[in-house]
Amino acid sequence: MKSIGAAAIAATLVVAGCSSNGNADADGASGSGGGSVGKAVSHKIVGIDPGAGLMAAAERAVSDYGLSDWTLVEGSSAAMAVALDKAVKNEDPIIVTGWTPHWMFAKYDLKYLDDPKKSFGEDEEIRTVARLGLKEDAPSAYAFLDKFEWTDADMAKVMASVQDGQEPAEAAAAWAQDNAALIDGWVDGIEKGDGKTIKLAYVAWDSEIASTNVVAWVLENRLGYKTELMQVEAGPMWAGVAGGDADAMVAAWLPITHKDYAEQYEGKYEDLGANLKGTKLGLVVPSYMDVSSIEDLKG
């Protein structure tokens, strides 16, 4: 398995399709054999940020399924989305690393490739993690964070609004106004805070932008806190909470994606449990492609 950098994304956009008129030939996108599918996408899987847990899982899948002649393209989630959008508009074949929840599943007709070897593991959870001592320093904020839980459908509404061009804070506020009853349950019995600033760390994934902005809205508008949102990479996010530079995050993907960070900082943070259940990682293709399993890529 080879990895190439973000500079190769542009080339991937060009070669992802197997025909210049945007229609995949029958031996490419619609064929189920590994050789034909591989040829159709130039044996490339469009990935995201190097170092992401999803990329580590994708590398494991390449090894587990014997895809030694395939290249995992490193880039960013934004570059992956651009490549996917181009391919779908042209009805060209493409394989990307994907995860749920993500707005792309609402925008496009996509499917995960079956993973019988469980290279991507079982479904994950997004968990809330707080710094040690937050319960004593900001009990109302802690109590709310401990109760915060929503669904992928809730999250998708905020993500879709942001994807359509709305500012994240505005999208969160609009969602909050439409879901006052749910928020009432989150803050029921919790006294207002004392106006302290709560620092929330998050990674720049669409899902975490959505959840962090909703949490910030509730802390500010329902509990009387101020908030500071700290956008960082996954490693600094965990280090910030573990070291006390951030108060909490609602962006911990476990047990797979952030496994190494959770183990590295074990004992230096408090896990408040899942705020969203049933997330998924894997290889994703447009539904018009006649391929159903990662095993079908070999050949």
UniProtKB/TrEMBL annotation:
GO terms for molecular function: amine transmembrane transporter activity; carnitine transmembrane transporter activity. Its main location: membrane. One of its GO terms (cellular component) is ATP-binding cassette (ABC) transporter complex. The keyword tRNA processing does not apply. GO terms for biological process: choline transport; glycine betaine transport. Residues 37-177, 196-298 form the ABC-type glycine betaine transport system substrate-binding domain. This is Glycine/betaine ABC transporter.
